[in-house]
Fold:
Amino acid sequence: MNKMRAILTTCICCAVLTAVAQSPMELISSNRSFAASNYSIYPDTALPRLTPAPNGKRPFYISHYGRHGSRYISNRKGFDIPYRMLCTADSMGELTETGRKAINEMRKIYEDTDKHWGDLTSFGQRQHRGIARRMLERFPEVFSGQAHVDARSTIVPRCILSMGSAAHTMAIMNPELDIHMEASQHDMWFMNYQDSILRKNQMKGATEQAYNDYITPRNKNPRLLELFFVNPDSVAKKIDPVMLNYYLIKMGLFQMNTHLSREGYLMDIFTDEEIYRLWQWENVWWYIMHGPCLLNGGKQPYTQRHLLRRMISDADSCIQLERPGAQLRYGHETVLLPLTCLIGINGFDYETDNLESIEHHGWWASKVFPMGSNLQFIFYRSDPDDEDVVFKVLLNEQEAWLPIPTDMAPYYHWKDFRSHYLKKIDDYEQWRRQNQ
Amino acid sequence: MHLSFFFVFLQTICIVGEMRRKQIYPYLLGTALILLCSSWHQNVKSELQSDLHRSAGVNYVVPTTHQLPQPEAPQGKKPFCISYFGCNGSSRLSKPSTYGEPYLTMARADKLGKLTPFGKEVLQRLALLRREADNRWGELTTMGIAQQYGIANRMADRHPEMFADSVKIIAHSLMTTRALLTMEHMLLQLARRCSHRVYHSASNAYSYYLYHLDEETLASRRDSATQACYSAFVKDQQTADGLMSRLFADRQYARDSIDIQTLGRQLFRLAGGIQNTALEGTVTLYDLFTEEEIYRYWEQQNALNYVNYGNFSLSDPRRPAVQSQLLRRLIAISDSCMAYNTPHTIIHIGDETGLIPLVCQMGINGYGLKTDRLETLAERGWADYRISPSSGNVQVVFYRRDLADDDVLIRVLLNEEEATLPIDTDVAPFYHWNDCKAYFQNNTDVHE
Structure:
């Protein structure tokens, strides 16, 4: 009866969610940051309430992997490419008033960004302070007294600063916390693993062809040329119109992560449709590069098998302790996205070779990896001797579902999770040994 | 030392006669401190002999610092701004080759049967050091973390009014992992003491003052005249014959196949680095050397730090400092803080390439000495371990009565001990900020 009730509840929830779920186009119309993919802003303005703990169980351990907060664009290529094109047009006397306003805004952006390429912004610090504060407010049992917090970061400065922002907030809220922070090359084999064998198969041959077939109808914007240039045809011969459109929209989107977000002019130039097409382009790129895209074998998510195995073994160890506290890990979207796909959170293990289908199936990378994005595994038990440890997953602080059976959604039995995913990883590694 | 005693004596006679009783005692306290500082300059060799760890120079781990009595600022002035520049905490040595090269040299010799029994034992120790540092080169150690907690605690204990709730902290760091973690751990400990509003950052945008070595001056420090001066000094310090016989059974092999001078320096550097790690107390390399050899290696290293970062005057006497941007930055940001009622703590984390030039340019404790006579550094008290040990730092604390008080005073601490400046003061150990600022700006203007 309870099982029936759980299944019925899940079905009703899916139906309701489907009915009210917005399409990417609608999301972009109401919040253009969604289109920024990995530059989108962390959605922390309206977080839903969480399901109460299962009867008799209390949270006792948190395992987390999170992305650094909002940052400046990582290198100046994203600025130089469109800027030089507009300078070329300017030297030809071809810029319209709109084009001149755009180039002036780009100069302002450059002045603000120069030498800050890739730096965490004040928005990013605030995001992590908020995430840490809510973690303590929601799960005080995990962080009471002298609870241990083991925080690790990749060796990239914006990740270390993100970790620090969270740790300081936790220490202010509970000065007794035993917080340990570390960032070491020694840990990169699981914190930010670079699998060269999988990487070299990402975008080759038929995969690249399919990608080009998908983006070609979407990557042109003749309206932009008309807006910016007096004689679009002659300027188009001197520049790359596709890349100009791409980088200008990107530049407008990534400024939302900085204090210039309040004054942006570039975003006002583009229509929702144009921004949506850019989102489609990037979404497919992320699917191919890090998702379970069958065009390149469907194995890219396994780049994070070491991290998943490590999280499982860490959890197994921590469960043996009376008060394990929390393990926080700070890294990148290029880890978080494939990890989410590997686990199959919220259906992100969707495999296909049909790139046109991923949007319809809800494979929207923007929902996984905005700036500050994070996965939190919250573990519950009744006491240290409780053998039925259960947990739930929060993706960006919202309850998520997993592709394994449960009789107590959104909670899952830890034993089921660990056996399912250890087997999944073992099977892959055996396949790889046999096929390399 | 004699000159400083004479100067202080004259100053005392002139000033005490004009001071009221209430002013005499703090002045005498300040004077005593000045004299104490002067006497330190004469004791470098005996300091090194009493604790060989000091020979590690910028890697020296100062034993736990105890809080000194805090003088009360005159006229009821209170602290309102702390400007801190510090080096990263204890770390492993930065490069894999630092551990790898001497190990491989000894391992090759061992394979050929050329090591003494002692040499074989040293090889095992090198293997241990190499393993401990593997994939953790240059990283902050737990000792470095503890140092930041201690510095933060003592800073908050010294000036509790500066760390009441909602204090504003601005912290900038070099982009290295060890500097960043140094900053984050210091801020973490301060967070445990008060709920601060902190803006912390690390960016290449700050490198122009955190890690800026003036290129022209640097080039002059590497020109032929400088190299000749340093080479001549080092040549007089050649020390490796004893080491060769201790480590290698086959002296002919050692002479023909080993660059023993380089190996000696490498082993000396490794010896000094151990104290920053958990292997301190378990492994040592100091027993490879005699006391005299350690002192000579240290003299070479100290001279190199002076040539690179001190006010070395050989190449360009008009521009003795290697950089001035950091001092300019500290002046500017301190002046900015004066416009606010809210207490501010400004933290900059760098390394010895910033701290040593800063201390020298400020003239703290006489370390602004300008010379090209490298053989006189020790006797004149210019010692790298005194200026910039692990977690070495300069703290400038600003005092005033209120926002309208235009006679701001400062107090300077070097490695958390009272320090002196080459500037007249009638409120020692405090100085008038306007006098200091004029002196510092003159130094930076001259440099630029």
About this structure: The interface with chain B takes residues 114-117, 119-120, 122, 125, 155, 157, 160-161, 163-165, 167-169, 171-172, 175, 179, 181-186 of chain A (CB under 8 Å). The two ends of chain A are 49 Å apart (CA to CA). Chain A is about 50% helix and 10% strand. Strands of chain A lie at 58-67, 148-153, 178-183, 325-331, 374-381, 390-395, 398-399, 412-413.
